[in-house]
User: Which sequence fits this backbone?
């Protein structure tokens, strides 16, 4: 847990010159052809991601662990109003100073700044390690892990398969009420992706829901190697209370979150809102409980939107945790 506190509360104390050099190389890597393709293909989404933070303002309570730009008081005056508002809600990782941040350092379709700890984000190999019925049966070693959590049907299996680029890696049971398991996948022999049972089965009994709650909370309370939870939110539907309840529970328990919006490729049906509008609504509700805005990113398992960016974000959290 100490490592986690360090990760999210403290500025990295590294040599400024090293940081700048590494930062430059990360920023350059953002201009690789794949990311440029994503940018142009989803130009609308990118514009949205940079502008919809505009109306948000700071709340004074909430999770103190997310390391983001905390207050306009700490900012240098910026050249434009938009720039200032964008910076206010960014996730700025360890090793980056607020006044160094420019738009090129922000991952497309997210509020995440890439810093010097971002490294090789490729997944070269992945192996299923085990399914655990109880938190205390999970693998016991020092390797860092990311837990993937979300409502049933949010697109969790699809996202895991897209991240590891293998079909059928995430073989979680989807039947309500059935015994659910914590699945550990070892990536590059150095870190874990953890597939947690989905919550909020519409047809689940009260007992099954309670079961989920105590089971999964047991995991969160006992996992010292947990770097962050990727909390998946379906961007094709309006904000759901159950997702807020989950986010708030994690926040109250000081568990770092990255919001991963799924299904961002989905067009609105009839009078429904677009994914970017649903995300905006979600963020406006979330900010009431978070003093500092958690990192968030838009993804689609259908188009690959956000995949490389999410892996890069995970690499910087992991590398900082690892050092
Ligand atoms: P899980 O229950 O959270 O593991 O969800 P699944 O990965 O099984 O996905 C649930 C449904 O959503 C399936 O029909 C998927 O094809 C669909 N789905 C998942 N991700 C996406 C996405 O990014 N875009 C679209 N359009 N559909 C998706």
Assistant:
């Amino acid at each position: 847990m100490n490592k986690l506190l360090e990760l999210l509360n403290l500025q990295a104390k590294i040599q400024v010159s090293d940081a700048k050099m590494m930062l430059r190389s990360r920023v350059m890597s953002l201009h690789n052809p794949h990311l440029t393709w994503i940018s142009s293909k989803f130009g609308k989404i990118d514009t949205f991601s940079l502008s919809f933070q505009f109306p948000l303002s700071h709340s004074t309570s909430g999770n103190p662990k997310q390391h983001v730009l905390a207050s306009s008081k700490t900012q240098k005056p910026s050249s434009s109003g938009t720039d200032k508002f964008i910076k206010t809600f960014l996730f700025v990782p360890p090793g980056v100073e607020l006044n160094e941040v420019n738009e090129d350092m922000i991952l497309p379709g997210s509020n995440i700044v890439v810093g010097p700890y971002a490294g090789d984000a490729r997944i070269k190999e992945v192996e299923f390690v085990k399914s655990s019925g109880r938190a205390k049966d999970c693998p016991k070693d020092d390797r860092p892990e990311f837990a993937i959590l979300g409502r049933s049907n949010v697109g969790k299996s699809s996202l895991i398969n897209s991240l590891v680029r293998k079909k059928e890696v995430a073989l979680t049971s989807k039947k309500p009420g059935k015994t659910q398991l914590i699945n550990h996948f070892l990536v590059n022999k150095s870190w874990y992706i953890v597939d947690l049972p989905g919550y909020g089965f519409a047809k689940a009994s009260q007992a099954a829901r309670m079961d989920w709650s105590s089971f999964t909370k047991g995991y969160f309370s006992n996992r010292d190697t947990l770097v962050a939870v990727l909390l998946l939110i379906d961007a094709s539907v309006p904000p759901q209370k159950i997702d807020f309840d989950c986010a708030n529970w994690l926040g109250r328990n000081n568990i770092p979150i990255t919001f991963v919006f799924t299904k961002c490729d989905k067009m609105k049906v009839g009078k429904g809102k677009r994914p970017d509008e649903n995300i905006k609504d979600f963020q406006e509700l979330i900010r009431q409980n978070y003093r500092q805005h958690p990192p968030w990113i838009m993804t689609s398992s259908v188009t690959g939107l956000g995949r490389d960016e999410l892996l890069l974000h995970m690499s910087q959290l992991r590398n900082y945790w690892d050092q």
In short: Residues 6 and 321 are 8 Å apart (CA to CA). The beta strands are 126-132, 145-150, 182-187, 191-195, 226-234, 257-262, 296-298. Confidence is low (pLDDT under 50) at residues 1-79.
